[in-house]
Amino acid sequence: MTHRIISASVALALVSLAACSNDATMEAAPAAANASGYSVPRTSWGDPDLRGMWPIINLISTPFQRPEEFGTREMLTDEEYEQTQGRLAARNERYEAEIDNNKMGMGHWAESSLSNDAARLTSLLVYPENGRFPEMTARGQDIAATLGSSWGREVFDRPEDFDVWDRCITRAMPPSMFPFNYNNGIQIHQAPGYVIIRLEMIHEARVVPVDGRAALPSQIENWMGESRGHWEGDTLVVETTNFNGIPGMTNVGIPGSPRGNYATTKNMKITERFERVSDDVINYSMTVEDPEVLTSHWTARYPMVRDDEYQFFEYACHEDNTAVRNFIETSRYERAQAAAGE
Known about the structure:
About 20% of the residues lie in helices and about 20% in strands. It is an alpha+beta fold and about 350 residues long. The protein has one domain.
């Protein structure tokens, strides 16, 4: 509890610091053209300016893992893209019909979006080249067999039978940077020496120092890991280590997610790149290395599209949520009834 309170206090303090980056006293410096010819805006202290709201709602129709029929092809054809657009339009029409009739069905979960060019992607995964999640090692399979989650477990007896997303603690990394059916907001703040990546899902804030400070000792471990950033030209590169090894990687939660639980370890390393290529687009990529449990690293890539009208909504979930208790009570009841019947 003390660890979480201290972590939350530090995050809140740094988010408050970052908020000053929008103050009128900190006007943006002149932009500088990058290799592609786009003039990346600068903050008043000279860093490339990534500030803004970059929700990834445009990706909710793009599978995480590539359907096998596409092979190594990263983009849909025009015909396939039109079919995707048609499915999204039909879904949105059904949602609007429910609203017009003062009705909200249980299937009305996904945030409404008509995809842009992001929907042309056959998957978020781009490496391995077939867009398929790499195989786990024998050690990874052993760890995965012990992981709990409401996504795939049928017997529940204790809180540890649920993952940390079930328990409203964290969505963890790497899933936190991938879309879900709702709460897809990502907002970037900046202040001298810091970039803050604010997430709508589970209302977390990733604090990324970019002032060249040394990494923390390996004994200091966090749910979301510990990040250090640096600039390579106009591109923000963020390296994250010091994971506590507890969450594991459960399903990302979007179409095409690998089924089942996927293990992570304390030695996982995540490298992200944020490259602003226009006023409204940041090209984002993530590479995950965890050789103890994965036979290969993997890389995902997608465009973040700016939408400053997007608003965060409260993530009204907390660690003592009643769903965990209800799952356990129901599971025990069903097993008792089955035993009595036998």
